[in-house]
Amino acid sequence: MISAHGKVILFGEHAAVYGRPALAAGIYSGIRVISIEPTNGPLRVRVRPWNLDQTDQSDSPVGECLRRLSQIVQGDQRGCNVVLKAEIPAAAGMGSSAALAVVLVRCLCRVREFEASNEQVRQMAHQLEKVFHGEPSGLDDTVATYGDVCLFRRNGWDRQTLLGLSYCSLTPQALRVPCRKLTLLVGYSGVKRSTRKMVAKVRQLRCENKARVEKLFDKIENCLSDGLDAISTANNQKLGESLFCNHQVLTKLGVSCAELDQMVELAMSAGASGAKLTGAGGGGGVIAEASGHEEMVLAAWRSHGFEGQRVVLTGNNTD
Ligand code: MEV
């Protein structure tokens, strides 16, 4: 079945845009194909339950994305009519646009009988992500393509051993991090935001005060390092603390909002070892490490009007 993963960013969003490392994980839910019908006409995509219905004639980012898609996928010039089912919400920090890009590339490759490797799919999806977000780091399209728990750096890695652990390369930019089965909670603020705008906000802040922003990125890198150690030693408490530490830095970067801060606080008061916003921020979602307290955290969010769910990371290792 043609599909793509949703994702959660555990550490390093925004810093990733400036060549800092980020740790993100694919989740089993994402976007999958319900039907593909090859056509000689335009490209059309419908996504349930987002109520999205666009063609390559549409005057919208998705319309522009479909036009770009038709140019970059090799093979004959056939179009297609695809119906997709999204298992993740749109614009909630779960990698919806990257998952859409990856699924669309895979669909058109199938229709045009072009056998693309995962890496070719990722590169094409990255071109589509540029339509949505300007100059994305590539983190989201990597995880949407491969799943897995990925340690990502946009300029690549010169060494594959960190914290005494060896990682294998998934792509020149991404290392696969072995990970036991890890379940986190995701909560949705219901506040829509634009990744492009949030990235521009950080860019503006960095133009105004580069030294301060680079220091904040250093702190994020420390949180990532602690988090990686926590994952490798299966230390949930430490993982949660590292997540919260990263959240506090993101707040200082100006990419949180009242709802996200409230959700982080609610999660921790209900027993989570830590929580943070995930993705570009300014709205969207939070993740929480809450082993043993999941129901209490979900109930605390629900009682304040925030939906949430468990997500299982696609890390493919051990227990
Ligand atoms: C968005 O999911 C992640 C950001 O770091 C942007 C990017 O990496 O392109 C905010």
Describe this structure in words.
The protein has 319 residues and is of the alpha+beta class. It has 2 domains: 3-146, Ribosomal Protein S5, domain 2 (2-Layer Sandwich); 182-313, 2-Layer Sandwich (Alpha-Beta Plaits), CATH 3.30.70. 40% of the residues lie in helices and 25% in strands. It contains 9 helices and 14 strands. It has helices spanning 61-72, 96-111, 118-133, 139-146, 195-208, 210-232, 236-252, 258-269, 294-303; strands spanning 3-11, 22-39, 44-48, 52-55, 79-86, 149-152, 161-162, 165-166, 168-169, 174-176, 183-188, 274-278, 285-289, 307-312. The strands form 3 sheets. Strands 1, 2, 3, 4, 5, 6, 9 and 10 form an 8-stranded mixed β-sheet that branches. The chain has a 4-stranded antiparallel β-sheet with strand order 12-13-11-14. The longest helix has 23 residues, at 210-232. The model has no long low-confidence stretch (mean pLDDT 94). Bound molecules: (R)-mevalonate. (R)-mevalonate binds next to α4 and α5.
